[in-house]
Amino acid sequence: MVTDRHAINGKIPAPDERFDTVVVGAGEAGTTAAIAAAKNGGSVLLIDENPVRGELIGTDIPLYFGGRMTAAVQAPERMIEQLFASNPLLEKAFDAGVDVRLGTYAWGLYLNGPAMRALPEPLLGIADGAAARMVGFGRLLLATGARDVVLGFAGWDRPGVMGSQGFAALLTRYDALASRRVLVVGSGDLALDTALLAVDRGIEVAGIVEIADAMQGSAELAKRIEASAIPLFLGHTIAEARGGIDGVEQAVLSQLTGDGRTSVDCDTIILAIGAIPATELLDAAGTVPGDLIELVGDCATVIRPHSAALAAWAEALGRHAPPETIVCQCEEVSRADLLGVQPPRYLDRPAPMAARSLATLLGDGPAHPDQIKRLTRAGMGACQGRRCRDQVACLLAAEQRTTPDRVPVASFRAPVRPIPLGILADWNELPEMAAGWDVWFGIPTQWLPYAVIGTPQEAEMIASLPGNMHV
Questions:
Q1: Hey, how many other C-beta atoms are within 10 angstroms of the C-beta on 405?
Q2: Which of 65, 248, 368, 441 satisfies CB 3.0 to 4.6 Å to 166 for a cystine?
Q3: Over the stretch 235-248, which tens digit does the pLDDT of each residue have?
Q4: Measured distance CA(407)–CA(214) in Å, rounded
Q5: How far is CA 10 from the centre of its chain?
């Protein structure tokens, strides 16, 4: 049998650490699961990216914080204290023998499968502010919660527009919310719960904006909303968010039927349209839950909004949005750029490219968000599309006269969290792997090792390549 000496089989090092159970997410669900696993015996690792570093919160990662955090997020020690105060189960996890690591990100999940068979075992990439490591595991529990559905409108890129998950995190987990008067935009229990949370914490609620003509959500929550005397703007959408250097100061609401407009003073607009399980690790790994990987907590129970409701909200919020309205904040891609399938504004747009549009692209078949991402960079920013992927899907669906559920969701890629390259580069690479990296692609004219060019070994190496790689 001939073995490809450039294959990576057996060259990937063993993990830096190994645990019987690894739990990602130290909220109530994840911590409870870690304690239960420890009581059943075996080694348990519990990691959580919280407290998230202040610079990441400032770039709306991992949640949509919207620039409404106080300076408290820049004090790591204070953030850790607040984290323990908000989740007393963490101390019980320590007592149960769980290895608890806070401020530690899970950035990549790697499993053997059709595209990879060389791993020594399932691996989870983790990193803190100092180093990245690979962890082996016998069972992986994801308690990673949910992220917000974000749909844009005119002025939504101002500081002060945020997601309901980010709002709750700043208010309850970190006690670092700078908002004083909020306007809640959304349907159902999520919007009502968000409004009631604000009221319970002494924050004034300027109103709830609902595109339907009647309040959505459970009867119990609706009664509490009615008792709290929160203004309801039914059958309305946001026409524009206005503000100054400090962000949002006012929201202009528009009736969906008619020309009536209302101005509402507020410093924060909370998007509570819906939530989606935060399963980026699985998505990037191309796998699903099973015997090896389980979902617990919100990431197992949260259901994304129904496609028709998502389309209705996207249409209503985009109704008054001019072409220059930003879709992707990270890359500053506007609605016009997206529908015109244009490259980022910092690149040239020659005449053939300027003549391109989504209509011409659709002439070759259905458009895929990943295709749009490559052509426009929408979704390629630091947040990896957490604020724009749903908007892109809704815009593509509208242009193709279909529903958002029929448009594929843009893919995630590891690392699913921003990790400094200097940390990722500190990798325990075996000499055998380093020796063959430049010929893995099998293109001898480009990837032949420099040391053998012009020597008798050059012909030998080319002859050893399989198939048509000699060409």
A1: 15
A2: 65
A3: 999 999 999 999 99
A4: 29
A5: 33
